[in-house]
Design a protein that fits this description.
Blueprint: E1 7-15, H1 38-47, E2 53-56, H2 60-72, E3 83-84, H3 101-107, H4 129-146, E4 151-156, H5 158-169, H6 173-176, E5 186-193, E6 199-208, H7 221-226
């Protein structure tokens, strides 16, 4: 009788650093980000695992964020250049890119929204969130198969990470838009695979911000122990 061999592929998603966008929709506009907060990048470098495969989108802000994290750790995260994948870019908002964000949202039909548009609405000359999710899911599947059993650090975008969570939890895409993904936050998702093709995803953390630990009051032993199950 054969036993199934379980392999775990860890995905450590990091949203890029803040973008000075002037209050305008940027989507796939290739803008620089602000990597000047040394405490944030030191905390990320300490938290993220070493000996990982690094991945970014093709947009400058993810590559700059990855470089700042690795520089903060004195090169201990390795010297290999990250894999650059256009499929992991933010949603292309087409003709909406460059518009004032507040004015744009005020011009839309009233709706409870955590995104610029419903998941199935395609921006003129651009994409819908559903389109983004389709390409992200394909890229995640391909990388998970290529690096089975490894650790992947993927520096991406808010929309990209929401799409990865939708895949892991089999969520309706509109529901996945409710996740809060702050700049520089970590979202950890593990792919649990077996040698017979069965799989499941396990979500370990969403929107984790390791630099906030220094600001938290010391927790009592009782509080720590109460979290155990």
């Amino acid at each position: 009788m054969s036993t199934m061999q379980m392999s775990t592929t860890q995905w450590w998603w990091v949203r890029h650093a803040p973008v000075p966008d002037g209050g305008r929709i940027y989507g796939q506009r290739d803008l620089d980000c602000d990597t000047s907060d040394a405490a944030v990048f030191s905390a990320l470098a300490t938290e993220l695992p070493r000996d990982a495969v690094w991945v970014t989108s093709n947009l400058r802000r993810t590559r700059q964020t990855a470089a700042a994290i690795r520089a903060a750790d004195g090169g201990r995260h390795g010297s290999d250049e990250p894999i650059v994948m256009a499929e992991l870019a933010e949603q292309n908002f087409g003709a909406w890119q460059g518009l004032d964000r507040v004015a744009f949202l005020a011009s839309q039909a009233p709706r409870r929204s955590f995104w610029l548009a419903p998941a199935d609405q395609r921006a003129p000359d651009g994409e819908s969130f559903n389109d983004l999710a389709a390409r992200v899911h394909a890229a995640v599947a391909r990388l998970t198969a290529q690096f089975t059993g490894r650790t992947i650090v993927s520096v991406g975008h808010g929309g990209t990470i929401k799409a990865a969570l939708a895949l892991a939890l089999k969520l309706d895409h509109e529901a996945a838009l409710a996740f809060l993904i702050d700049n520089c936050s970590i979202t950890r998702i593990d792919h649990m695979g077996t040698d017979v093709g069965a799989y499941a995803w396990r979500v370990n953390a969403v929107n984790h911000r390791p630099w906030t630990r220094a600001m938290e009051p010391a927790r009592t032993n009782a509080a720590v122990h109460s979290a155990g199950v």
